[in-house]
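pipeline: protein-struct stage 2 | run 1193 | Tetratricopeptide repeat-like domain-containing protein
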Amino acid sequence: MSNPDSFIDEVTEEVRRDRLYATLRRWGWVAILLVILVVGGTAWQQVSNAREMQAAQARGDALLAALEVSDPAARAEALAAVEVDGPASAVAGLLTAAAQEEAGETAAAVATLEGVATNMNAQPIYRELAQLKALLLDEGLSPADRASALEPLAQPGAPFRLVALEAQALAQVAAGQTEDALATLSLLVEDAEVSGGLRDRASALIVALGGTPGSGAAGTNESPE
């Protein structure tokens, strides 16, 4: 390679370096900022996770401390005072309602349970349990209204179907709806998942109402004319 060519190559390389340095001086801060954001974001995520774990542990400790209060009314107040959000709030609500019921504060327990039942952040099984307990505790409901309100909870596939069926049958009996009660009790007796004790109670009630256990719709024992 001749000297002029070598000189041209050196000049070209120098120009390239100058352009690179100029680019770095102009845009290098962007790369540095990106590095800072990535590192800072990772650190913040770790700090945030640690704070959430500490907050969850603090809420759990507060709930456990409230449950140790012996007086039901004071326990209910202590449980209600614990600030719980998200899905865990349903569990706290159920515990609060149980303490209120034990303290004889039925209206307050129903209100708490209704709050859980309408909490869309709670898992469906907790909402249905709260709805069932609220219907059983609500002294303002007539037997007929209670039987009607229990209908959705007594459908096949519902998690508390068997309990709801028994409660519905008792409400129908109290409302004087004997035929409806016999039909409900028949569903209960014939359910494959019913426990022995619950089947025995349902069968005894069928007999008391004049029906025959295991006869489909629990038909009455009346003789044909």
